[in-house]
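Q&A log
Question type: sequence-to-structure
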Amino acid sequence: MIVAKTKIYKNYQTSIPKSIREKYNITQDTIVEWGISEVGEPEVKFREKVKLKDIIGLIK
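Response status: OK
Response body:
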């Protein structure tokens, strides 16, 4: 299923379509993780950037 299409620009840059940004609440602090699944398909995952305030107190 194709949800949206983007173009690859100079230096292999691309943009994340608005519908995807809104669905996954992507901001400028979001980390994009690229991978290849066990069956050889590309995978893209989004996660929030870890901030210092999030890790304070985790180490004893």
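Response note: The chain has two helices and two strands.
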